[in-house]
Amino acid sequence: MPTTSLIDLTDARDDDITSMLTHAHRTITRSKAALIAAIAQFHARGLAEHFGAPSTATWLIRHFQLASSTARELVRVAVFITQHPRVADAFYLGRLSYCAVRLLMAVVDESTTEDEEDAIVAAAEGLTITELRAALAPLRTPREDKVEKIRIRTQDDGWTTVSITLNPDTAAEFAAALKTAELSNYGDTTTKVEDSDDQPGDVADQIAGLDPHGTHGAGVVGVSRFGAPARVRLMGAFKAVVHIVRSQPVSRVRAPGAEVIYVVREDDGGVPRVVSDPSAVATGRADKLFNARMRTLLVDGVGNAVSLSSSTRLATNRQVKALVAQWSGVCATPGCGHSRWLEMHHIVDWAQGGPTDMWNLVVLCSACHTLVTNGQMRITIDDKDPSRLHFRARGSHFVSCRRGAPVSLESLLARKAPTAA
C-alpha cells in the first residue's frame, strides 16, 4: 500500500527549513514543559496510588511506554521545576531547553537565592549546551564521600575487568600519560626532540592534527596532537603505557605533538608531500586540502613558489599552549566542543597583515576552520570593543566577551534592554 509523507519539504527554501526547525523545536520544548508540569501536579496530588500504581514513575512507564530511567528522570525534573519557578517560566516559554533544565538541576537548589536563580537562568538562555555545561562545572558541589580506587576483577576464562576512579588531578595525569603513549605508537620514542615554547611550530605542528574529512577522527588514520586519545585508540594507548612501564624506556616524544613532516619543493608545483610517502599528497588544491595552511608559500611576481614564508606565520609552542588553555582545550566556536584536531586561526588573515599575536589567534577544530576558510562562518573582532569576538554564520550570531564562552547576540542584547518600572 503506497504511503505519503506527512509533509513534503523537497521544494522548500533553505530559510523555510530553518524557520520550521526553529518553530518545531520551540513547540516541542513547550509541549514537553507542559507534560512535565502535568507530571508535577500528578505527583504532588499523589494520583499514582489512586490510579493503581505504586509510584508516579511506574504509572508513566505503564501508560506511555517509557523506559524506567526516563520515567524517573521526568519525575525528578517535575519536582525540581515546582521548587524553582524562574527556571520553570523560562522552560515553559521555550527559552530553556529540557537539556538545559537538567544541567541546572545540578547547581540550583534550596540554597539558591531568587537573584542568583535569575542570574543563572539569564546566562543559561544565551549559551549552547556545550558552553553551559562548562560554565556550570565550577558551581557543582563536589561529593565529599568520593575516594580514589581501582578494582581488578578476573573472570573464569582469564579476561579481566579493570575499574578506576580518580580525582581530577590524577585523572589529568593519567589522560596525559595515555596521550603520550598514544603518540609513542606513531613515532620514535628514543630520539630527543627540542621543545622550546618560544620556537614557532613547523608546518607539521600546524597541520598534523588535520582531519581532511571533517569527521574529527572517525575512520581517519592521522592522530590529533590535542585532546584525549580517540575511543578507538584508547586500548592501544593503554597497552603502550603498560609497555613503557615494563620496558622502562625514556620516552622523549614532545607532548602533545606527533612529528609529521611535510616538504614543499619549488620545482614540484608547490604541492606538499609527506616525507615517508611522497605520493600521499600528489593532487588537489593545497589551500582546500590543508585548510588554507599552505598559504605559507611565498610566490614571486610570475607566480612561482620560491620559499616558505616567515616563521612568524606559525604560532609558537607557548602561544599554542596558552590559547588551548584559554579556550579550555576545545574549539572556540559556539556549541562545537571538539578537543581534537585543533588549529590556531588568524582572525585577521596573515596574508592581509594580521600578526601572529595572541589577540589575533583563536582555537578552531579542523572542521570549523574549514567553514571559516570557505566563508560559511566569520570570526571578527568588534571594531568598537576589542574585547568582543563575533562568531557569525547564516542565521546565528554569537559574541564572546573577553574570550569567554560565546553567548547569543539576542540574549546579550536582552540583558541590556531597559525594563519597565
TrEMBL record:
This chain belongs to which protein, by name?
HNH nuclease domain-containing protein
Question: Pfam families attached here?
Answer: HNH
Which N-terminal residues, if any, form the signal peptide?
none
Indicate the segments forming the HNH nuclease domain, all copies: 319-370
Extract the GO molecular function terms from the UniProt entry.
Answer: endonuclease activity; nucleic acid binding; zinc ion binding
The source's superkingdom equals Bacteria
